Automatic annotation (TrEMBL):
The chain holds residues 198 to 601 of 601 of the full protein. The keyword Transferase applies. One of its GO terms (biological process) is cysteine metabolic process. The keyword Transferase applies. Keywords: Pyridoxal phosphate, Transferase. It catalyses: (sulfur carrier)-H + L-cysteine = (sulfur carrier)-SH + L-alanine. It comes from Mucilaginibacter xinganensis. This is cysteine desulfurase.
Amino acid sequence: TAPFDVNIIRRDFPILGETVNRKPLVWLDNAATTQKPRQVIDRISYFYEHENSNIHRAAHELAARATDAYEGARKKVQQFLNASSTNEIIFVRGATEAINLVAKSWGEQNLQPGDEIIVSHLEHHANIVPWQQLAGKKNLKIKVIPVDDDGQIIIDEYIKLLGPKTKLVAFTQVSNALGTVTPAAQIVKLGHLAGAKVLVDGAQSVSHMPVDVQALDADWFVFSGHKVFAPTGIGVLYGKEDLLNETQPWQGGGNMIVDVTFEQTKYHNAPGRFEAGTGNIADAVGLGAAIDYVTRIGMPAISQYEHYLLVYATELLKEVKGLQLIGTAPDKASVLSFVLDGYKTEEVGAELNKQGIAVRSGHHCAQPILRRFGLESTVRPSLAFYNTCAEVDLLVDTLHRLKK
Ligand code: PMP
């Protein structure tokens, strides 16, 4: 049985009451983005109705309210990730911007021609392209950890890639295309033993499992608010405090300085040095509300329920004739990827849409891992804690009918 009443939870998400093609919406595209609870929507409205101001600068009441709300959200993120200080939490636009920040600041400042970056075959384009751009500029080498036929990273092959030239390991905690949960703490530890820094892409993990950045021991950890029931346009870069303070900022402007003359500028320590200009204040506050929301339900409870749904969906999908599941690692988060004999993935997506079911059909911004399985595209239902077995049944029934 579920550790919470999913029908009560669903009432918090106004959009789940929508109809699509005169059918109730079934939102199974959570890996692309998640829906927002009333508590988040209301919190953003409240900000604009009662607190809106720029932060830090002016000594007036609304500036104080906005600053408290924004810094309060930073504190919630710190606790959510179990970071040791709020100084380690930098607000950015999303996971993509966080990775680019590390590439364009730390990477540009510290990597030398011939240095090596290791990524895994599972990566989202956001954790490939910035490193490739940097490698082109600085003549670095990118090495790729292979995955096995289940879609799991092969640790022995990873160990062979590590060496004195390895300066950075960047990999995902959960694959957005297959759902694989990688042995992240082990990958971090091995990277550190080789003397490398390690970045963990948590875009797909934070909404599905408890994350503890101190236990993980990553140097940087990134995620996007919109995948964890918060708005788009807000995300987080976590970094170890000393490392952040040793790194020169990538963008200059207001807010991030201690003192400016025409000759030189003295920067704030983190997080200020990496938050130039006016940030996305209201949506950061919305992210704080989303964290409160999932924390109240409990990440362990969410994880447990989603695992149950995942197992349920996996077993039923296996019974659909001609359906091939891609990504069969024993350790998975709630992403399912498949192809169906005789149908293009877009056709499957369109048929499901007729029933009100939203799934992603495509390459999921992770072309290398799909090509590892000889594919350009899969159908990808992805689950969240507000999904139900009845919704999974509808998905599977529609696929059965399609095959008849
Ligand atoms: N990494 C992974 C694993 C993702 O799934 C995504 C989003 N699909 C990203 C990075 C990039 O996130 P965003 O587009 O929100 O910046």
